[in-house]
Write a structure and sequence with these properties.
DNA-binding, homodimer, six-stranded mixed sheet
Chain lengths: 337, 337
DNA sequence: ATCCGCGAGTTGATCGATATTCTTGCGCCA
DNA sequence: TGGCGCAAGAATATCGATCAACTCGCGGAT
């Protein structure tokens, strides 16, 4: 900057108001004992100069930045985007500013972005839907960086996630109650692995509990970007499923497209249940019946855990929170014909 | 933190490798002249200790943080969310990390979040859809903080926005070509004021250009959250509009809901054109004809301007960029019956 | 008269890096 | 042999805050 505007420092304020910088510091932080008259003089100098304390200098000395990093894999997924917003609000409410990093699932990028966060000395990191290398997590934990994992799982770190077993069970039972017996599970290939596995297992157990037998070929991935091949045989068969549980709303909504392009109406031919409860699922034109994650609670719990970890360090054992989802019935599910 | 993990500093590396910290610094920054053998010794010490330079200390000395703040008013609006993602990617590509602040249109919050960004000494700020107090902007400019405004306008700052006149004209001409003569404009009440005004004016002029006369009562706000009252009389009238231009896709999609709840089918009874080109507008079930903003160009231009302003300061006059949108025709518009 | 305590404020060390200036040793040339 | 130049690295000031330790003056108790 050539026409640089030299920001006033604490020394400038001290000089102008005729006190020492300690006194200015005390006034700014409302600590120590400062007489009213001195305080007024300092405040006036502050206003006159437009002084704003330099967080960089404070951060260096206090070894604390009030910054938290949020690393999110798949922002295309609206649920993550909505959750990040909630986390940002919670963080702001606790005096933290968030550094958001989208990695788009690129592992290399992920490592370098996290590296940048650590150089900035963030107080903690939220790993949202962390798809990446487990070694990265191990390293963070080894360095005692406060970390909270959201919608993903590790026994060594603080975790918050929805209860997949309960959620999938809600979905399956809903379909069963509507009379469906041929039920498939459509998975999102870019979904975080531990969550995907949990939901796949939960699905099979839920079927068994309902007296139905899972078919291996009816747990299938659908990637709207790529070829539609893997899922089509299942849909085109004469005895195609009449009910589908989708791994998440993003997949479910794309699946509606695919089904209807292939002459299968939702819910007339196939009932569809999503998972997440993103905003647009509630649009009348979409009307997705879905397992709703308690988004605000998720965000709040995340910041409670992170703040606790920042305060107390790693003395206490990792905390794991499973939140209970709920089913919202809309128009994508109907009685089996 | 009680079980604190003391991060290694440049001094620790210097001690371990038996050199001065200047040399370590030179090795880390690949500057100065360091012999290969010394370099190797230092690198080994770095690896052994897990040393990572402290950006806080560097920032303090260099008066540069490589942080940019992004202040966004209305993240409920998917377009903003998608644009923030693009900006984040562009920033990361240029070595900046972004601090994202959602203000939700709360002016008080906005000022305090910007204050926090300035305390963190961000290198620059992106104001996206800045709804807030013009005094805040004036202050930023007075303090010579590099600022770029996106999707909003000020003659004193660098601005990037879509060309509202061209966009609205595309929408109106499309409806006119389909035979519509009774065309309304539905505005988003939380939309940033300069953009709203620009679109309202553009709408009226586009009508005139098409030989139609604007009706004042047909430029009306719709807030899905509040009462639906203000817009219903227009829709219930016998000579209700047969074409609607919505201020943005968010409003358009909520408007579909409202129309269909009131027995007006889209596009059968009313054709609807949106503005923005958010992802879900392309879903078959939505099929919104819309004026698409060049999202990536918008994000790229934003960071080009911001980077330039950070480098060169305020020697050069503000730059204003108007980007040309395009129309994507889908199924929400049809020939007038 | 002496001492204590306290309010009000100052001094100075410190955080962890960068960058400028300074030192040292060595080879080379006149 | 003396002096010069340069490569390699060391010393040190600096950024802008915080905080513990210290000073100073004054009023009241003994």
């Amino acid at each position: 900057m050539t026409s640089a505007f030299k920001r006033p420092t604490i020394n400038d304020v001290a000089a102008l108001s005729g006190v020492s910088k300690s006194t200015v510091s005390n006034v700014m932080r409302q600590s120590g004992t400062v007489s009213d008259s001195t305080r007024a003089r300092v405040m006036e100098a502050v206003a006159q100069l437009g002084y704003r304390p330099n967080a960089t200098a404070r951060n260096l000395l206090l070894r604390r930045t009030n910054l938290v990093g949020v690393v999110v894999g798949d922002v295309a997924n609206a649920f993550d985007a909505e959750l990040v917003t909630g986390i940002e609000r919670q963080a702001a409410g606790r005096g933290y500013t968030t550094l958001v990093c989208n990695t788009g699932g690129d592992t290399r990028l992920e490592a370098s972005r996290i590296e940048a966060l650590l150089e900035q000395r963030v107080d903690g990191i939220v790993l949202l839907d962390f798809t990446g290398d487990r070694a990265v997590l191990a390293q963070l934990l080894a360095e005692r960086v406060p970390v909270v994992m959201v919608s993903c799982w590790s026994e060594y770190a603080d975790c918050v996630a929805v209860d997949d077993v309960v959620g999938i069970d809600l979905a399956v039972r809903h379909l069963v109650e509507l009379g469906h017996e041929r039920i498939a599970h459509v998975v999102d290939p870019v979904m975080e692995a531990t969550t995907r596995r949990a939901r796949v297992e939960a699905f099979e157990r839920a079927l068994l509990r309902a007296g139905l037998s899972p078919r291996a070929e009816w747990t299938v991935a659908y990637d709207p970007g790529n070829a539609e091949a893997p899922i089509l045989p299942m849909l085109r068969a004469a005895d195609h499923p009449t009910g589908i549980v989708a791994a998440n709303d993003y997949t479910a909504i794309r699946l509606i497209e695919l089904l209807e392009r292939n002459g299968l109406a939702v819910p007339h031919d196939i009932s569809l249940v999503g998972f997440d409860g993103i905003d647009i699922a509630g649009l009348a034109r979409i009307g997705l019946t879905t397992v709703v994650q308690p988004r605000d609670t998720l965000a709040r719990t995340t910041l409670e855990l992170l703040a606790a970890r920042i305060e107390t360090g790693y003395d206490e054992a990792p905390q794991q929170h499973r939140l209970i989802p709920s089913l919202v019935v809309r128009t994508s599910t109907a009685l089996r014909r």
